[in-house]
Amino acid sequence: MLGSRKLYRIKSKNQTISCCLHCVEQGVETQFTLCQECGKKTANAFSNGLCYECKINEPYRWQVSSHLSRAKAVGAPATLTLKEWSATVAYFGNKCAYCRNRPFEVLEHFLPIILGGGTTAENCVPACQNCNSRKNSMHPDNFYRIFLPDVIEHIKQYLEGNKQQLVSSFAVNNRALVVMPGMQKIANEGIKLSALKKC
């Protein structure tokens, strides 16, 4: 039955090969790798072995992991994920949640860890160094002394809101708006002919 397999012609700019459907499927399968962070199968061939979603969250990896470690060390809740933090930063427009003017520089605990706050989506906001230093380890009830009341209310409403919807829409929006290096190449070339066997 081997001789009766239907052959498919696959063309690229420089080469045309003929192979069977089985070989095409095997060639396509070799184009996928597992993301080293989340384990999902991905065709995104980033040099660090991450899928698209993990790649866009990579700049925050160290920031989140260091704060998670700090919270765990004192027995505080430590559940903040990279996706949740990325969505929070995007919600505040990459700006400080307190002054709304300067770019964010630090992950800030609304209720400080020393006062029982944790590194969670319900307690972390982006802040600039200046506002972070001004706030220090102050309790949220005293923020009105140094920050505008409407700003504090806005932050409280965000922290108490439904973040699951925000996290899912953030991933979709980033996928639609951001073209990572290499993505266009993958879309244009499709499968690599060198991965296919000639039948």
What report would you give on this structure?
The chain is α+β, with helices and mostly antiparallel strands. The chain has a domain at 55-175. The chain contains eight helices and six strands; from the N terminus they run ββαββαααββαααα. The strands form three sheets. The chain has a two-stranded antiparallel sheet. A hairpin with a 4-residue loop joins strand 1 and strand 2. Helix 4 packs across helix 7 (163-177). The two termini are 14 Å apart. Residues 168-191 have low confidence and may be disordered.
Keywords:
two-stranded antiparallel sheet; 6 strands; single chain; 199 residues; 8 helices; 40% helix; two-stranded antiparallel ribbon; alpha+beta
